[in-house]
Fold this sequence. Notes:
CATH class: Alpha Beta
CATH topology: Undecaprenyl pyrophosphate synthetase
Mean pLDDT: 91
Shape: globular
Structural class: alpha/beta
Strand content: 5-15%
Number of strands: 6
CATH architecture: 3-Layer(aba) Sandwich
Low-confidence stretches: 1-14
Distance between the termini: 53 Å
Strand order of the largest sheet: 3-4-2-1-5-6
Amino acid sequence: MTCRAPLCSFIAERSDMDNKLNIPKHVAIILDGNGRWAKSKGLPRNAGHVQGARVVEDMCEIVWNKGIEYFTVYAFSTENWSRPDDEVAALMKLLRNYMVNAKKRANKNNMCVRVIGDKTGLDKDLQDSIADLEQSTAGNTGLHFQIAINYGGRDEIVRAVRGLASDAKEGKIDPADIDAAMLNDRLDTGGLPDPDLLIRTCGEQRISNFLLWQLAYTEFYFCDAAWPDFNEAELDKAIESYNKRDRKYGGLKNA
């Protein structure tokens, strides 16, 4: 099939621009706006969550094709348990449905999946499904996909500190040896690079207890699109904005 010259030219220019961009290695996203998206269309809130889950699956392929190696999404926070019972039940059902085909889909796409958060707060069947998914995909070398479920940044740090305190009490470590690197290794994200870029959708401009330790030098990008409307074009805008940032990590660029 032959495309029109202007379209071919645009595709070539877009590809050339992508090649020149500095692609973030790790992108984290706060998935916001599912309920508002559904309400704007006269649909129940759960319809927004269902559509949002579809977008997550699409974005896994899109980010990998752009050269992003790590992709972390905030799916369910420790505070989300306070939502109406029917909405929480619907979200847990959505998670169970995802788990049905997640292992097959992840292995087909060579994707390594990890769930971060306090998994002990989930029902036993979900804990078992998550453990099976993580074990089955641990050796995959494609996209590293992290899903934050029953996750809170403060809770994560408290759990890590408790683990270090317990080891110190049992004489396994010397408290004087505890440093930032040791604490970092005890976090749910231990072994992963910190996010280079955090995206939050639907116009909100806060981090809502997400990756508090890991976002120390992350670049933030906020967009108006609700998560169910987020697409490759919105991601491109975020990456282009990221490329305009001067990341100095507390130092001086020419030092």
